[in-house]
Structures are given as structure tokens and as C-alpha cells.
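Ticket #4471: complex job returned nothing on first submit. Input attached below:
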Amino acid sequence: MSKAVALEVSQTVEAGPVKKRDLHLGDRVFFWILRGVATSVILLLAALTLYLFRLSIPAFQTFGAKFLISLEWNPVSEVFGAGPFIYGTVVSSLLALCISVPVSLGVSLFLNELAPKKLADTMGFLVEMLAAIPSVVYGLWGIFVLAPWLRTTVQPLLGKTFGFIPLFQGPPFGVGMLAAGLVLAIMITPTISAICKEVFRAIPDHQREASLALGATRWEMIHMSVIQTARSGILGAVILGLGRAMGETMAVTMVIGNRAEIDISLFAPAQTMASVIANEYAEASSQIHLSSLAAVGLSLFVVSLLINAMARFVVHRVDSRSAKAAH
Amino acid sequence: MANPILETKEVSAWFGKHQAVRGISFSAEPNTINAMIGPSGCGKSTFLRCLNRLHEEVEGARVEGSVLLSKEDIYGQGVDPVAVRRRIGMVFQKPNPFPSMSVFDNVAAGLRLAGIHKRSVLAEVVERSLVQAALWEEVKDKLKQPGTSLSGGQQQRLCIARALAVNPPVLLMDEPTSALDPISTAKIEELLVNLKNDVTIVIVTHNMQQAARISDQTCFFLTGELVEAGETSRIFTNPQDTRTEQYITGRFG
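Support reply: We reran it on our side without changes. The output follows.
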């Protein structure tokens, strides 16, 4: 740089505006577009909530808070209560968790701690691919493969062996609570195992060496250094899986049998909050029926929001704690 | 070298195809501190991890040669690496107490792995080990707090107590003070000199002054080989090999 140029540059810089951040026109337009997009997402969420809320007002006015526990849902006599659907959602999701959590833990521990790297990469990819299958495909598989198999083989066997437990009593329908729980379990396994895998991966190797050097076997090392350390992370993964199971609609609607009654037997047909909306929304003719469906939707929305918030909170707490432990 | 407690014969170690340790023969007398010095990547840490069969836990890692602990080859046929690690303690570069465990449970972890669950025995050994690690006075009222709530230097002494609890004849230390401040470092060095009465120590260190201050024998490593080993005072005053001399006078490394 010649002396003259250098002088000119320094003069320009000195003369440049320092009073105010002066963005170029392009920057300003870009900024406003992004701001608009970001704001519109939040507005959309707010509008959605408001709309659901307004739609469900008549239902809550007519049936009061009892709407949430009442067991009768009868479109003909126009009496509505969400009890059977809340029961259906809770039981099918818990059933899915009971099946999926041990499997997911096994998968993620195997991939992270035991399998050679190449095998782990391939298997991890395939497990994550399970999450990419559209839920209607799971539903079809549930109807054509799983439900008949349950009806002819599994449920009679369960009934014969564990028939003394009310959960396994009654005629084998195939479609019903058990089918829904199984399909949900398969659908949330990739979610839970993927998150668990990340949580385990975040545990530094020197934690594992600490227990190995003390004379821990591989299983003892996994227990002491991996599972114990990752406890809250695992809990976060489970809660996220629960959130997914509760909101899942298509596959559940296809295999749960859709009957608005509470039956303790897992073989019996049932219905969830999501599936009743999907099933009846198109045919709901009366104002109060529509409003009741909206009220069910609002309840599901609120519960899902709470579950997700809880999962974030738990996972965040783990992150900050393991960050502290790593120092 | 009458009656070494730990002796290695032609130990070599690989990571996949890369050979990190080349045919090292070394021996340590009982109740001594043995320092391993050398520049980064010279294989001293890998060699240390061969002494308790931890090296083989890395995927693709391999060891050849023999390591005799009280005359018994820990790489011999039918020897369980888990049993070996119960008899040889190890302390790492980074303090690594179990984050989910209290101070007490951290120290008791090795005993519980060995199948000792009796509360009174655990309490006694935990106190003895913490006293041995010069930590008892500082933590005797905090036994139920998480091990990770202690300061860095305290955490490292907690890890030393954890290793000592199972009464190992040999204690391996991989740069145990490199993550600590000078005051904590001085405390640990003093502790090691006192521990010599109970245990034989093999310590990898980046810090030559540390080796000179506390060790009885010093071994100088370079590119996976043991260049020179001998009495510490001799190594630092009268090294036989020119590479050792160049390293200890700060010409490289």
C-alpha cells in the first residue's frame, strides 16, 4: 500500500459514521424479512391456540370441568366427555414406553459401548431410518400383519398364561390397546435410542477408564460410568418418547379399534385423544360435537406442551451438570 | 535390582498399525517412585497403560511382551484383565471421580466391585484411604456430597484415595498434576513421597522438575523407546546418552 493510499484509507475510516449503526439497504431488507418470518411463526402458534380455545368454549360451558373425567361420549345423545380418550392416550403411551425403553436402552448401549465402530455406524443409521417411515405405513403393517398375528397367536397365548390378570382377559380382537401400544413402541424406539446414544456419547472416556481401572467388568463399567452418569439424560429421552407417543395419530387410529369406552383388558379396542379427533372430525355435524373435539385437541395440545417443556428442562439440567463434571 | 515388584520384558504396544511402544524392559523396586519422562507422543502414557492392561480396551490396540507383577505374568494365559486391574491402582491426568456418586461412594467403589458391602468395613477403609490421601480432614464432614463438588486438587486426591482403597501393591499415575495449580501439585507431590512406604508408584510426568523432586528412578522415553533408565540423581547429573542430556537440559521436547 502506498503512503498516499494509506493516508486516504485512514481519513475515510476516521470520517466514517460512528454515531449510529448504519446498515446498508440490503442488510436492512434482509433483517426485516427474517424478523417477519420469525415473528409469523410465533403468531401462528398463538393464533392456533386461540382458535382451539375459542372453538372449545361451548364444550366447556356445557359440560364444565367434568368434561375431562366424564366417561360418556355419545354423539347421538350429544353428551360428551373426554375420559375414555385420556385413559386411552395415557395407557397406550405407557404401554409403549414399557416395551420401548428397555429395547432402546439396549440398542443405544450396544451401539455406543459394545459394537465395533463400523457395525455401530451402520446399525445406528438403520435404527434412525425407522423414524423416517411414515406413520400410515406403520398403521398398514399394524392392520395387515400385527393385528392378525396378535389375534391368532399372541393374545390367546397371553390369555392362557396370564389370564388371571385382568389386563389379559377377554376375547382376542387383534386390533385394540395392545396393538396400539406395540406399534407406538416401535415408532418411539428410534427417538429414544438416538437421544440416549447422544447422551452416552457425551460421557468422556476418562469416566469409563475410571471404573475399568478399578477392576470393573464391562457390565459394571456400563452401570457405574455410563448409566449412572447419564440418568437424567435417559429420563429426558424417555419423556420425549412419551410426548411422541401421546401425539401419534395415524398409526394409532388404524390399529386401536376406536371404541370410546374404558376396558381394563389390553385386548379390547380403545381410543386416544388424537385418534378420536382424526376419526370424527369430518363427520361431526353438531356444533357441540365439533366443540368437544376441539376441547379434546386443546387438552392434548396442553399436555404435549408440558411434556416437551419438562423434557427440555431435564435434558438442559443434565447438560450443565455434565459440563461441570468435565472440568 | 534384587527383587523387583514390577518388571516388564520387551513390551511393545500398537494402535492399529501404529507402534507406540517398542520393546521396553523395565523394573521397579518395592517402595520406590519411578518417573517416566519424555516429550509428548513418546509412548510413556501408552506404556503405563500396558502395566494394568488398560491399553487393550482401546479399539484396535494390541500388546506384546510380558509384565511381571510379583513374578507373575499379567499377560499370561488365562489371566483375567479385570483381576489384574483390581490389583493395580491407577490415577489419571484429569481428576475423574464418578459424578453420580458421593465422596464416600467414590472411595468405596473399588471395594464394592470386589464384593465388599459391609457398612462398617466400608466406613473404616474409606476413612483410612482418605487419611492416606491426605484428604480426610478436608472432607470428613462432606462425605455425602457429590465427589465432583470438591476442588480440582481435592478431586485428584479423592481419586488417589479411591485407588488406594483396595490396597494395591502398585499405583500407576498418568500426569496426575498436569491439570492442577502449583499449590495442589505440591500437596500431591508431598503425598506421593509419603505413600512410598505403602505402595510402589510409577508416574508419568511432563514436568522434569517433578521427576527430579520425588522419584527414585527416572526413565527417559523417546519415540516409543526407553532411551535410558537409572537412579534419578544420576540421570539428571550424569546422563549416559546424549539424547537424555539434550532433553533434560531443555534442548528439545
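Chain A has twelve helices and no strands. Closing as resolved unless it happens again.
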